[in-house]
Amino acid sequence: MISELFGSMNQLFVKSAAPHYVQMHSGMINKAKIDLWASQSGLVRQNQTVEMVPVEGGTIYFADSDTSEKTSVMQFYFVRQNERFDFLLNLENEKVDVAEGEIAVPVFFMQQKHLSVGDKLRVVLPAFTKEFTISDFVRDVQMNPSLVHSKRFVVHPADYAMLKENVGAVEYLIEFQLKDPGRLGEFNKLYQSSDLPKTGPTIDLNLFKTLNALTDGVVAAVIILVSLLLILIATLVIRFTLLATLEEDYHEIGVLKAIGASRRDVRMLYLMKYVVLAALASACGYVVSFFVYGLVSVNVSLYFGKADNSIFHAIIPMIAVAFIFALVLLFCMLVLRKFNQVTAVDALRSGSIGETTVSRNRWRLHQNRFLPIPIFLGLKNVFQRHKMFGLLLFVFIASSFILIVPLHFLNTIQSPGFISYLGIGRSDIRIDLQHSDQMLDRYRQLIDAIRQDGDVERYSPLVTSRFKMINEDGTVDNLNIETGDFSIFPLKYVQGGAPRRENEIALSYLNAKEMGKRVGDSLRLLVDGEEKIMVVSGIYQDVTNGGRTAKAMLPFNPNSVLWYVVSLNVKPHVDLREKIEQYEKAFYPAKVTDLQGYLHQTLGNTIDQLRRILILTFFVAIFLSILITALFLKMLVAKDRQQIAIMRSIGFAPREIRTQYVTMALFVLTIGILLGTIFSNTLGQMLVSAVWSFLGASQIDFVIDPIQAYVICPLILILVVTVTAWLSTGKARQVSIAEMIKE
Amino acid sequence: MVLLEVKDLSKTYWSGNQETQVLRNVNLRIEKGEFVSIMGPSGSGKSTLLYNISGLDRITSGSVMLDGMNLADLSEDELANVRLHKVGFIFQHIHLMKNLTILDNIVLSAYLAKKRNRKQIHQKAKKLMEITGIAELVDHDITQVSGGQLQRAAICRSLINDPDILFGDEPTGALNSHAAGEIMALLSEINRSGMTILLVTHDIKVAGRTERVLFMLDGQLVAEKRLEKYENENADSRKERENLLTDWLINLGF
């Protein structure tokens, strides 16, 4: 399945002929100059300058909806299909081709708006209204992930021309494919030192890959984790069943040895059984994986398409299956090595190999004052056979862990506080002003209006500009720095704090990591043409803009501004929704969103994925708990049948005997849930942080819903295990006292 | 007064389609306070009869009336209740709970029955342990004591709930002759105190201590021998009873 994921992703990159370096730009452009520079650089295989018409969300209506997309944080770009590379693909991974009046919509909206082919999309501009018919959906190697706020819609060249004429504005993607993608760093430096457009955001191949893998990479990581856990549990189960079987057959083994069978003979006798079982199971697993893959890879298939059915993709899963098969056999052989330590006489005499035997303990029934007898006996049994119960405990810990960690993370990502991992302080409303010709004027009007608005409690304008940073080797890199007063809506810092002086800078986690900077280190910045030494005041987490951002209190230079953001809180009596609507009208085309909405739209896809993971892990955890509890208790009842017969002979009712076993399972489950919860809150948090550190959030603190995590989940497990334990011990009722006692 | 009455008891086992009738139309009455033994060759159905009339197994047909209840009509829980309150059972092999001490094994069913409070149960258990000569083994694990001592503990366990009747399936079968003698002396004494006892045995020395010996052959009770009540541990009288029984058994072709 993992190989399929990466196969599919790779396929998309190949089929779409992904660009290696993209510079976004708005404003005047000289295409000939770019082409000339590219041909002279020596690094570029091919380049193109792609036009995009930005259409305001407020003018777009999906399907039959009466509400426009004005609250969407996404930016809608209408484009034509590219001719040389960076192709926009349909769901068959073929170049999208649309007729006049038709439109191909990004898969992000197909999923979010539940769109299908034939649905309409209306663009309502002051001068005209255009209705498109959705003819296809677009896989966009650059803008697929929900974390990327730009989305490309493909229209016919004639429609494009009309839109361009009516909208008036055009933005550009200056795209390059390199001869050697490995020399991307070198190319970046070369480009930055040229006089080509540089004011817009820059994206490269590595960032596309990271962003694409973000949502589905999380699924892959969870699948790998769950698979490893299952393999571990499987080996423990094999160990348990093998030892239990050996114990059952101990006398027979002794007889075999006594009549001259060698250790090797006996070992082969048992090993052959497991060779056959493991081979069958591996073959079944291989076949089943084809069916199960579809269930968990809906998103992968939707966003990346299916990988080619090459021999390679058939062989890798086969190697994985063979590896598991070999692992199982190796493990069986290790367990069977116990034979080496046993003589025929030992085997005949003791009838035990020590693993599942009863150890002494000091719990005295006659000293027990409070517990009912079946419960006391159940608990005593667990303590006396703790080695054997280790398997069940491990499974319960694992079940709780895989149930609670995704739940915690889902809860965390949905909590308002998650905004801090997006490098933003918490506020009621966020207003985004993207790059445009009149951006500065609009910004000034916006600030004036907010300042005079009596409903506003406090506000914080933040300006993101591009600066040049001088590396230690003298080369220059771009650094997007947000400037403003960061004390108004404070952010949680991983280390240090917000910049307070003009020579201080706070770096995002990924930036700090890549630059090798810590709090107190200094870096050289070019500000208004002069070199300035900045001291790192703090490091914060940010998964936006590829995780590479910075914050400082630098002088305002309108020429280098990329975008403006104004965060504000309204006074308690003010209706947030009304305020947002008011600002939307007043500051059009600025994007006005409440923070929760912003968070949801940015991470919506990840949240959906997490929900899917939660469902997956929920069923795995429940299935695992049922399977192992049933297997374990059935085996235990079979093993204990003589003791059960004794209990029944002295008057224990079947229900009292079953209560003992349910007590054992529930006691182990309780410890399992406790440990699982502790591990989830510590190890799980570290694990999630480790995965998200690739995106820029290295220190995720779980926001825990105690009712869900500490009441509902344990209750579900308790219920499932109780019912399973009760049903699995039904055999205790059928144990014939007479037969067992006579044996 | 009749304590146990068995009428037309049959027991059949099926193995696939193959039917084996182990007990056939067995009829038996045990009076309260009686000490009865059942003898017979191996495979004659002695133990099976004992399990079926003590509520440890289900009969195929007929009836087993114990203290006014037909065991054949009882549910699984009711039958468990009979085993708990009305019946004591001593097995040939030591069937004690492995993970409990001697005392805990003895008191276990009393705790479950809740006839007495904990203190009374402990007193009763200690008294039984004194009578059976294992008072010093209270906190011993079952792996720490001899077979004879374990069988005494099993006797204590079978008596802890004051059952109406005590069943024994070769209770001395796994013991050496000295230990066996001691156990039988103990059972005789228990019977003298008023307890009804029914034993299955191969051992003429065991049967010689009982007052009625039944002979079983091919799943049926075919003969009965009444003896005087065994009143004292006199070696001569014991020998005499054993001789009487030997003659009887020879006449039966055993």
Distance between the termini of chain A: 51 Å
Task: Report the β-strand fraction of chain A as a percent range.
Answer: 15-25%
Radius of gyration of chain B: 18 Å
Beta content of chain B comes to 25-35%
List the domain count of chain B as a whole number: 1
Average of per-residue pLDDT values of chain B: 90
Radius of gyration of chain A from CA coordinates:
32 Å
Q: Tell me, rounded to a whole number, the average pLDDT of chain A.
A: 84
Q: Which ranges of chain A are low-confidence, i.e. pLDDT below 50, for 5 or more consecutive residues?
A: 350-355
Most extensive chain-chain interface:
A-B, 31 and 38 residues
Give the helix level of chain B as a range of percent: 25-40%
Give start-end ranges of low-pLDDT stretches of chain B: none
Order of SSEs of chain B, N→C? Answer: EEEHEEHEHHHEHEHEEH
Shape of chain A: elongated
- Total helical segments of chain B: 8
Subcellular location (chain A): Cell membrane
InterPro entries (chain A): ABC3_permease_C, Membrane_comp_ABC_pdt
Protein name (chain A): ABC transporter, permease protein
Membrane topology (chain A): Multi-pass membrane protein
Structural description of this entry:
Chain A: Keywords: Cell membrane, Membrane, Transmembrane, Transmembrane helix. The complex is a heterodimer of chains A (743) and B (254). By secondary structure, chain A is of the alpha+beta class. Among the domains of chain A are: 2-200, no CATH class; 422-597, no CATH class. Chain A has a ten-stranded mixed sheet with strand order 3-6-7-5-8-4-2-9-1-10. Chain A has a six-stranded mixed β-barrel with strand order 12-13-18-15-17-16. In chain A, 40% of the residues are buried. Chain B is α/β, with parallel strands linked by helices and 254 residues long. Chain B has helices spanning 46-53, 76-85, 102-113, 118-131, 147-159, 177-192, 204-207, 235-251, and strands at 2-15, 18-31, 35-39, 61-66, 69-70, 87-90, 165-169, 196-200, 212-217, 220-226. The two termini of chain B are 32 Å apart. The interface between A and B is medium-sized, with 31 and 38 residues.
